[in-house]
Amino acid sequence: MKITIKQAKDYVGQVVTIGCWLDNKRSSGKIAFLQLRDGSGFMQGVVVKAEVSEEMFDLAKHITQETSLYVTGEIREDSRSKFGFEMGVQSVEVIAEAKDYPITPKEHGTEFLMDNRHLWLRSKRQHAIMKVRNELIRATYEFFNDNGFTKVDPPILTGSAPEGTTELFHTKYFDEDAFLSQSGQLYMEAAAMALGRVFSFGPTFRAEKSKTRRHLIEFWMIEPEMAFVQHAESLEIQEQYVSYIIQSALKNCELELDTLGRDTSKLELVTGEFPRITYDEAIELLHKLDFDDIQWGDDFGSPHETAIANHFDKPVFITEYPTAIKSFYMQPKPGRPEVVLCADLIAPEGYGEIIGGSERIHDADLMLERVKEHGLDPEAYSWYLDITKYGDVPHAGFGLGLERLVAYVTGVEHVRETIPFPRLLNRIYP
Predict the structure, then answer these.
(1) Which of 178, 248, 380, 410 could pair covalently with 173 via S-S, beta carbons 3.0-4.6 A apart?
(2) How many domains does the chain have?
């Protein structure tokens, strides 16, 4: 019977076959220990010289790293292993021999590993990160499907830009100008007027020449939009969503988080209501922390966000930013138009902003005014302005950057490890 490594727990005491690759091996003369991987997990295969033919034991001792195999043997419990099971190997069949595999069990430089990203993904650490990423995606769909949201797919090629065109990739769309999407938000607002509560999940692109550990050129966004929802309720939904998917990762990725050495006690605190601090209060706090360079009206950089987040043991909302530094579509605060009803969710441990959201303007005259103030062409945005003209309602939404969340949950330092094939400044290979 052919099974996967993940299924091994269900076949204790049975002889099975696993299609796999050799991750690593060691030998003590009379026993060969094969570290096997099949994509579903990692498991040790033990080949005892006295229990197999001389030819089979010699083959086991000389298999090269990343050779593909069919390995047959008995599944048994192994209390010494964090996985909990191993195989007593009876036979090994080589499918394809790998020679001179470039990523050996030694230290390699970052550039070398990035040049070989297509192979680096096979390592135990990268495998664990991708499994956590997958669980966060799975739990995302589960959360929104269970809470009455409809999945909508906005276009990647657009003729306009939610944030302006300064950081967009330009292309030609036959004889027209087009851009790679930096956000599906405007389309999701239109969809919310048709379907009530919607969410999208897809790639977005920012032509931002940044080399920080938090930035990618191409990344994936989850973008919900909700009709008849205002700022306060949106914050509640955000904290419910983030709590849900992080707790799902803790429950379903225990082995992977252990592999990564993640201190999960900090993630266990991410539940319930998140702390909230206004922009005004954040400025006061930063001044107390000797950040004299920051003044009211300035946007926060990474050091400012980290200093604020260090005061809390779970993600913190910074709310009500100045209108002048936020996007044109954000609803002003009643009685105080110099700030908007928005919030950034800042993760602890230096991981920075993982969500940006706001209540959206639902007044036709104000929306047109803001479009003009930001130097945008009303004609190009005429379809979006139609939302405010034909039965608009209070509505709110947010965007979560998946790679930053994966970095936070896994504890990895740089987002380049949180996406299968990262696109970075000066890197589009492989």
Answers:
(1) 178
(2) 2
The reply to whether 92 and 125 lie within a common domain is: no
Report whether 154 contacts 187 (CB < 8 A).
yes
Identify the burial level of 251 via C-beta atoms within 10 angstroms of its C-beta, where 0-12 means exposed, 13-18 middle and 19 or more buried: exposed
Instruction: Quote the pTM value.
Output: 0.96
Residue 244, domain member (yes or no): yes
374 alpha-carbon distance from chain centroid: 31
Tens-digit pLDDT string for the chain (430 aa):
999 999 999 999 999 999 999 999 999 889 999 999 999 999 999 999 999 999 999 999 999 999 999 999 999 999 999 999 999 999 999 999 999 999 998 999 999 999 999 999 999 999 999 999 999 999 999 999 999 999 999 999 998 665 555 689 999 999 998 999 999 999 999 999 999 999 999 999 999 888 889 999 999 999 999 999 999 999 999 999 999 999 999 999 999 999 999 999 999 999 999 999 999 999 999 999 999 999 999 999 999 999 999 999 999 999 999 999 999 999 999 999 999 999 999 999 999 999 999 999 999 999 999 999 999 999 989 999 999 999 999 999 999 999 999 999 999 999 999 999 999 999 999 9
CA nearest 352: which of 296, 301, 422? 301
92 and 171 belong to one structural domain: no
- Residues 58 and 127 grouped into a single domain: no
- Residue 167 in any domain: the answer is yes
Nearest to 86 by CA among 1, 25, 13: 13
Place of tokens 């539940």: 271
Structural domain ending residue among the three candidates 65, 96, 127: 96
Of 63, 96, 129, at which residue does a domain stop? Answer: 96
Where in the sequence is the domain holding 133, given as residue range(s)?
117-417
Whether residue 428 is contained in a domain is answered as no
